[in-house]
Each structure stands twice: as C-alpha cells, then as structure tokens.
Amino acid sequence: MYLINFLFFINIIFADYGGGYTGSGFRYGSNAREFSLAGAVVADKTPGFYAFSNPALLKFAKNNHIGISIQNMSLDRSIQSFSFSRRLPPNAGVGFSILRSGTDKIMGKDFMNNETESFSSSEIEGIISFGVAFGSKFALGINIKALFYSIYEEYKGKGIAGDIGFIYQFNRHLYLGALMGNLNANYTWKMTIGDDERSYKEEFPQNYIIGIAYSGLNRVNLFFQEDIMFTPNDVNYRMRFGGEYDLENKMKLRVGLKQFRGALAKGKKIDGINIKPTFGVGMPIKIWQREYMQVDYSLDPGSMDEGLSHLFSFSLQF
C-alpha cells in the first residue's frame, strides 16, 4: 500500500504521457487483453503473450502456448503479433515472438506541397525470451530484441535491444512485477538519396516499469502499473489501472484506466478529465475435446477523434 501511495504521489507531480518518441509503435499494446486492462500487465500473465509484458512470466509456461493478435486500427494503421512459448523443465520457459506495427496509404508530398505517391511504413521487433524461477517466489527473465524500421524505400533502420524483467510472489494472490525495457536500444538509420548514402543513430527512451497484480477478491482481479520513461530531455510518467471480472460462464469482462495526457507547456491547461478508459471482453471457445482457444476483444474509441479501432487476440495452450 505504501508503494502504491508513493507512486501515485510521484505520478501527480511529474506526470507526462511520453508519446512521440522512438519505438512508440511498440508501446500501443501487443494484444487485446493488454489493451483492455490499460496495459497494466507487467505483473500478470496473459497466456500466449508473456514476453511482451514481462519475460519473467515465462516461468508460468506449464504448457506450450501460441498467441496471435490482429489489430485493425483507424487511419490505415495496424498491429500484428505472434508469440510461441514453451516450458523448460523444471522451472523455466523460453519463447519466440514478433510484432509488426505499420501504417499504409501515407500520401507523400514534395517541397512545394504537391501530392506525389502513397507509401507505407512499418516497425518490426523479433524477440527471443527466457525466464527462470529461483525458488518458489522470485523469477528473472530476459528479452533479446532485433528491431527493424522501414519508411518508403530509401529510409531503413535496424538495431538490437534488451529487456530484463522480475517477478516476486508474495502469496498466491499478490504478485509484484518490474521491467527494465529498451536497454541499449537504438536505430541505425541508412538513407539513400540518389548516389548519396547517409547513416545516423536514433536512441530509444529507456522504460522502467513496476506493477502489482492482485486476485484475492471474489471473481475480481486488480492490476496497477507505473511506467517511467527516460527520454533525452526529461523523465515522463504514466499510471495504469486494470480490473477483470470472471463470469460464471468463464467469460471475462475487463476495464482499465490510464493517464491520457500529462505535463504541458507552461501556461497551458488540460481540458477535461486526464484519464482514458479502456474495456474489453474475453471468452474460451471449445475447438476439440478438452482443448479451448481463448478469444479476446477490445475496442479503442481513439484518443484524438481518429475513429474506432477493433482489436482481436487468440491464444491456445497445448
């Protein structure tokens, strides 16, 4: 409780939403359940998508897991993700994941603001993950990530990054999770303009995340997370809350709240409530005998009147 109060106080004083920095395409969310819980899943396991939230969660991979997410978004944006994880006896797990974030039908313009031709951009990360438990309460995990970015044909970037995650289990109802993300992450850009080739580096902001997951209430799971992002110019904070309610038919209802905007320029004010709600549902569908596929859905109403986005995820244990 003291930890929550401290993080809440820090967030109010130094809040910022952290948008517009390198790698932002990877921070939207890898699956529908994560989005519907406002992203507050660093301490909670989403089967099929462990590596995206915290590689230390791979210690919970008692079976093989496959996760697929298809997110069709407004303004010709889309995010697709795939993840496979499996158990390594006696108390470890390994996984491979890939996420693509892209935008199509971008209208190009010349120096005179005349339309030229449409193009697309895409950002891809491939992840190899490993998580291992040390005793019954503590687990450690790592992600090794290969990063690729392509804009049109002349602009391409690539890089290598890493994440380190931790999980501590106080009891069977309360978990503490933490993640140090984007360690040593950058894009090395190569641009070809005519016969001239240029290159430069663009650093990712580093992310430090801490959160808790609590399941001690009747049919209710609660999640809290605080994101701390170190950019070249300042430090940004974002708070997230999530709640999940289990119905008798195994269907799950989810809601979340996350900080929408934070610190603004001096003299400017935030209009309205500085919180964005999220929501979604999930349910298992029987596919054969005792095998079930988990189907999750979340609706993103948009942040700046850009329109609705529909997010679907599918996961299977076998």
Shape: globular
Strand content: over 45%
| SS element count, helices | 3
Order of helices and strands: HHHEEEEEEEEEEEEEEEE
CATH superfamily: Outer membrane protein transport protein (OMPP1/FadL/TodX)
Return the structural class: mainly beta
What would you note in describing this structure?
- This protein has helices spanning 2-14, 32-36, 50-53; strands at residues 65-73, 77-88, 92-109, 115-134, 138-151, 155-169, 174-183, 186-193, 196-203, 206-217, 220-230, 235-246, 252-259, 275-288, 291-300, 309-317.
- The chain is mainly beta and 318 residues long.
- Strand 14 (275-288) and strand 15 (291-300) form a beta hairpin.
- The longest helix has 13 residues, at 2-14.
Which key terms come to mind for this protein?
318 residues; Porin; disordered N terminus; mainly beta; 3 helices; 16 strands; single chain
Overview in brief:
This protein has 3 helices and 16 strands.
What order do the helices and strands come in, and which of them pair?
Blueprint (H helix, E strand, L loop, with lengths): L1 H13 L17 H5 L13 H4 L11 E9 L3 E12 L3 E18 L5 E20 L3 E14 L3 E15 L4 E10 L2 E8 L2 E8 L2 E12 L2 E11 L4 E12 L5 E8 L15 E14 L2 E10 L8 E9 L1
